[in-house]
Design a protein that fits this description.
With about 350 residues, the protein is of the alpha/beta class. It has 3 domains: about 90 residues, no CATH class; about 50 residues, no CATH class; about 160 residues, Ribonuclease H-like superfamily/Ribonuclease H (Nucleotidyltransferase, domain 5). About 45% of the residues lie in helices and about 15% in strands. The protein contains 12 helices and 7 strands. A 5-stranded mixed β-sheet has the order 3-2-1-4-5, sandwiched between helices. The radius of gyration is 39 Å and the shape is elongated. It starts with a helix and ends with a strand. The mean pLDDT is about 85.
Length: about 350
């Protein structure tokens, strides 16, 4: 379909042509248009076509006789629509400028992350960020709270505030080369994901588990909560021992390992990154493998997404010196460092 500019050009050319030539060309174009109408039921009409017919209807009284592709009421509807758009532009809003959407999102982000903040508090923080905005504007775009500010606290905030006082304990089972079962006791701090203690036994029992509590919490003055599952090895004596250390026993619900997620996650890590690549010979071999992985790699070098790519024991970044690597478990993992 010809563009609007081409139609204007052809219109100017028609002014200087003879009437006979114009009539013959008009007849040829009408015949081709009739053929096109038989093959295309509904032609595609662009905005430039609509503007052309609205303009033509305003300067030519007999425009309806030449209209074929659409009906005359359609052209009139186009004109009314254009009239509405014109007055919408004409009566556009004036006065106080609209607040930028990025600023609105920042206001609501501050409100969500700090549920006790008022509009004045958020406005003061925005001023410190170089964003001039009135208190009433901040209050206007804040979302209405669903509960009293005193009762609102995000679960993530709650868990972070209690993470350094919480330790998760659990067991994993490793198989030796002769398919003998060896149990591994693991205790991990929720604060920095650091493995505090581990022990191995081919014959675990309640007194052995109580001894692991002593070795884990004997000199610990920070931990207040111990999360565990409902394994039979956690006997009544075990539970009383937890209380004697001044700790609060927090058993998970039945068949709910997700309630002890950090300990379950580290057990999966021990399998995927260590034990799945080893054939364990005996209890001593298992202890040596886990000791090297945990205390020479996991706690001191392995980066964690939850710790912003830091290791459980803080590992400062070094930018100068030659990079060297130390193999762990025969080269299964490596520790990288810089030396002068």
């Amino acid at each position: 379909m010809k563009t609007f500019a081409k139609l204007i050009f052809e219109f100017l050319m028609l002014i200087f042509r003879s009437k006979q030539g114009i009539a013959l060309e008009n007849l040829a174009l009408r015949q081709q248009l009739a053929v096109q109408q038989r093959s295309i039921k509904r032609p595609k009409i662009k905005n430039t076509d609509r503007i052309f017919w609205v303009w033509l209807s305003s300067i030519w009284n007999n425009w309806k006789s030449s209209l074929i592709i659409v009906k005359p009421p359609t052209v009139i509807g186009w004109h009314k629509k254009g009239f509405k758009l014109y007055w919408k532009w004409k009566s556009r809003r004036v006065g106080r400028p609209n607040v930028d959407w990025q600023l609105i999102k920042l206001i609501r982000r501050m409100q969500k992350e700090n549920p006790t903040w008022t509009a004045q508090r958020i406005q003061g923080e925005l001023v410190k960020l170089g964003l001039e905005v009135a208190d009433n504007t901040v209050a206007k775009y804040m979302l209405k709270p669903k509960a009293d500010p005193e009762k609102r606290q995000r679960w993530l905030t709650f868990l972070r505030n209690h993470a350094k006082y919480t330790v998760g304990i659990d067991f994993l089972v490793a198989r030796t080369i002769f398919f003998k079962s060896i149990h591994v006791f693991v205790a991990i701090s929720h604060d920095r994901r650091r493995i505090l203690h581990f022990a191995v036994s081919s014959n675990p029992h309640s007194q052995w588990a109580i001894q692991q509590l002593r070795e884990t919490f004997a000199f610990d003055e920070t931990t207040k909560y111990v999360i565990r599952d409902n394994d039979k090895i956690f006997s009544e004596d075990f539970k009383r021992t937890i209380k004697r250390f001044g700790l609060k026993d927090k058993p998970t619900a039945f068949r709910s390992p997700w309630q002890n997620p950090i300990c379950e996650r580290v057990i999966g890590t021990l399998r995927r990154e260590c034990l799945d690549y080893m054939i364990i010979l005996n209890k001593k071999h298992l202890y040596n493998v886990l000791h090297e992985y945990i205390f020479e790699y996991y706690n001191v070098s392995r980066t964690h997404m939850s710790l912003e790519k830091d290791s459980p024991i803080h590992r400062p970044a070094k930018i100068t010196g030659k990079i060297i690597s130390k193999p762990i478990l025969g080269g299964l993992h490596h520790v990288y460092n810089r030396v002068a």
